[in-house]
Q: What sequence folds into this?
């Protein structure tokens, strides 16, 4: 089911050590947990048949209804330059008015030129990621205002925690890209925050990163930092998408100026736009999931079409983020049955348009309890079966996105790795069918210690990071640790084991020099 | 996707109360949590396309390999009467030897007469369950030696806890049947335990129940108690399966005497047999999942074929219970990626044979932490996508089946209800598409309080039992409760809200009289 190939092997363990290893002390287990997971999860593919919950006629109904919305209601486009470009492309623009309406033919013509797959290039080519098709790419949590770990409690985001979370994203191969600022470091002045953060992302990871579209200059700085980080020319970067931005519509039916500017700056340079309406059913979208999907689709199609008006063939993803609110409190809910339906239906829509599909690993839990796990696992279920290609907030997102959690990061890494293992092919070779082993053991025997078992047991099964499978008595003697306890220990071990990826000194100097110059210039205006 | 029809409505809430209800106190929420969920989950259907991880040729390879095992290696059949019946049917039986071999043609001929679907009849006809096809039926935890709740801790099973768990199974409609003794009440003497327990199952629930196949007399007593409970004749009961038994092979490749006797007693009377090999890869089955599936399939086909040798057309299910062990400790693991693969592949095998598929909701957690939730949710993911028809241990199973947990029972009920909601059809009517509402609100507005929202918000979304969606500050003021805390409170509320189902006094008298007579006779021998 996947391109997973080389299982990581611990050379210290040999089959003949089996008996000795049957009850390892905690130190052995911890050593294993702290080690880098190798390349097993660096590239993932999901070849499962996609689950579909919309019959073809329902899919068509949502499609047509969203086109009707764009044609008859239209969107508010809060940037004159964007309205000009839309008018040039054939949209219905009235001078002096923000409302823009789009003929359905225009929308369909525009989205047809969006590529169905593309590569995002990292400064380390081994970290390049393929977007679209059967590829499954995980990005860490982004944009949380708060950060938490059990020792320090919940606190406002800061650069130290920002860096730690970025290091964790680098440490685990199942995290394929960062995804924005994992936590907002408010101890850096907003005028220069993007310079420091993007510089950190280049230095502490060698993976693809994201830039916020919060004004043209931030986009331009990010583009330059990404170019410097890869050590390439402007022309090469224009051929090789190396930076991505998430564009959220201001639902319902509005695209704000900085977001539109972000599309213009990024798409015109062939960089990646992830067009994601945030359509909470019952709040900023109709209370019905079908209605929220109509609105999501209208907003997504409008944004995707605009990327193609800016530059035909520019790489873009269809982002789905429809969930429901708690109708008793108005609070957003995530990882719910309704969220699952929206994720799977969103995948059907994205495939209909041949555009890669961005999803998320969500939950609304306030702590690392069962709720955090079941809401996340329901999200992973839906995005796996629904054919998500790129998963933002894949690790560390909690409390509905308000908080980045160190412990949740580890829990998510474990769950993502389990999804990857589930998607890996089931070996059904003659050897795996084990007819000879069955003959040898026969009725009434057992398979512990047989040749067939000894030759395979080391890598036969996924060895989870957190699951505590000790028997109740042993677990009680150990102080009855929960998943939360294990995750708390493991994230610190991972930070200790973190290795900074090498960076050409010339590139580092150029980067530092650029950041220093831009800081000296005052960064960006912050009169917001 | 489901036959879910009537949403439960709380008549105390009206749309105009919306504002007042936006921040309910805990008492309101608790009242809602404690109430019986009505009939919304009484009948479930899963119309999702099944996920397949075995390509057709791999499915055929496993099928053929398992037939080769039965033909060349055979099974040890530890009951002379069973070997006689097998010999009569055409199996290769050598007088004085336990080993029996089966021609593949014989196996295929026998399983062809197993029905693809059937009804199990409860004493309350509204609780009848349809087995097979798209039907999804949940049974509670069974056979745990220990029981736990947070107040009382982990303790050996007893009748008081047995009764409480049975009451919880009755209370929630998403639990469609009981599934054996939820916990083994060791304070009842083994010679009469089945009489007291089965009598309790008739009195405290009106749902279908299970009997253990631990010797012929226990089966006969259970058959009589099921007949009395329904108030029907022996003949009617023979037309209407009203009792089920789980038959486990003693893997590898052995069927013990009491299990074989159970098949004979149950199948000959047209009652339901769930044939479930317990094939732990790396322990009692080959270390490869494909090899374990070969062995599972061989054992399942042997047992299913035997039911049809006893009585053509007798109702039987294909049980899948292949998981892996922790190769470091030998401990069984559940809800793992390997378990998911085995569950989905097992569904492909069961469908190949046209026999309803029994699965389980498993985990190996020692407490109600994130692990308990993610392992269970991975089990539910696999059995839903894999087409499980009947789910044993659906609620309350923890610690690899060693312990029945009151809190886990509630967590599972919530997760089962979320699966049911996920499987319910997505309304894509013109009304749900909400084009008029989108027109009315337009760009930049919101949907709180619109007519479209007010008309639907009460039942628009699933209202979870346990998920705590309060914001961090409110949740902190409330003492930062976890899922475990909520589940602890809810199970007690459910027990308080439990209502004993009515039972015809004549039936109760007949039941009591039968139990008293059988006790006076000494119950069953316990010289084991």
A:
């Amino acid at each position: 089911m996947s391109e997973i190939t080389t299982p990581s092997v611990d050379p210290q363990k040999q089959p003949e050590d089996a008996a000795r290893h049957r009850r390892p002390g905690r130190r052995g287990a911890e050593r294993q947990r702290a080690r880098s997971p190798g390349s097993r999860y660096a590239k993932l593919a999901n070849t499962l048949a996609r689950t579909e919950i919309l019959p073809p006629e329902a899919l068509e109904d949502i499609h047509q209804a969203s086109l009707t919305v764009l044609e008859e209601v239209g969107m508010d486009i809060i940037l004159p330059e964007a309205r000009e470009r839309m008018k040039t492309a054939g949209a219905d623009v009235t001078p002096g008015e923000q409302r823009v309406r789009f003929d359905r033919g225009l929308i369909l013509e525009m989205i047809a030129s969006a590529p169905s797959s593309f590569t995002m290039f990292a400064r380390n080519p081994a970290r390049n990621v393929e977007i679209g098709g059967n590829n499954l790419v995980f990005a860490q949590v982004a944009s949380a205002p708060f950060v938490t770990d059990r020792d320090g409690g919940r606190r406002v985001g800061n650069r130290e925690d920002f860096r730690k979370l970025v290091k964790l994203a680098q440490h685990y191969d199942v995290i394929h890209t960062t995804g924005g600022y994992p936590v907002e470091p408010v101890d850096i002045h907003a005028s220069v925050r993007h310079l420091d953060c993007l510089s950190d992302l280049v230095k502490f990871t060698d993976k693809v990163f994201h830039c916020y579209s919060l004004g043209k200059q931030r986009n331009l700085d990010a583009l330059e930092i990404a170019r410097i980080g890869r050590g390439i020319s402007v022309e090469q970067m224009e051929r090789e998408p190396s930076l991505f931005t998430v564009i959220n519509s201001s639902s319902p039916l509005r695209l704000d100026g900085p977001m539109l500017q972000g599309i213009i700056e990024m798409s015109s340079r062939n960089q990646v736009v992830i067009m994601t309406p945030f359509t909470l059913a019952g709040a900023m979208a109709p209370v019905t999931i079908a209605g929220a999907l109509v609105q999501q689709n209208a907003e997504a199609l409008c944004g995707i079409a605009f990327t193609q008006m800016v530059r035909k063939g520019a790489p873009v993803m269809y982002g789905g983020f429809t969930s429901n609110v708690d109708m008793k409190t108005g609070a957003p809910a995530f990882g719910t049955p309704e969220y699952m339906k929206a994720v799977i239906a969103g995948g059907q829509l994205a495939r209909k348009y041949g555009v890669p599909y961005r999803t998320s690993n969500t939950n609304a839990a306030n702590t690392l309890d069962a709720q955090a796990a079941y809401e996340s696992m329901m999200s992973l279920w839906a995005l796996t079966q629904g054919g998500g290609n790129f998963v933002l907030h894949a690790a560390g997102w909690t409390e509905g996105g308000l908080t980045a959690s160190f412990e949740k990061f580890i829990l998510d890494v474990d769950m993502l790795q389990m999804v990857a293992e589930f998607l890996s092919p089931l070996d059904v070779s003659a050897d795996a069918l084990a007819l000879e082993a069955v003959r040898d053991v026969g009725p009434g025997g057992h398979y512990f210690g047989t040749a067939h078992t000894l030759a395979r047991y080391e890598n036969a099964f996924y060895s989870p990071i957190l699951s505590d499978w000790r028997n109740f008595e042993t677990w009680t003697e150990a102080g009855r640790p929960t998943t939360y306890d294990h995750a708390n220990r493991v994230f610190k071990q991972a930070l200790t084991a973190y290795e900074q990826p090498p960076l050409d000194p010339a590139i580092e100097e150029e980067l530092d020099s650029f950041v220093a110059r831009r800081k000296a210039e005052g960064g960006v205006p912050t009169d917001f």
Q: What stands out?
A: Residues 289-310 of chain A form the longest helix (22 residues). Confidence is low (pLDDT under 50) at residues 1-37 of chain A. The first strand of chain A starts at residue 44 and ends at 45.
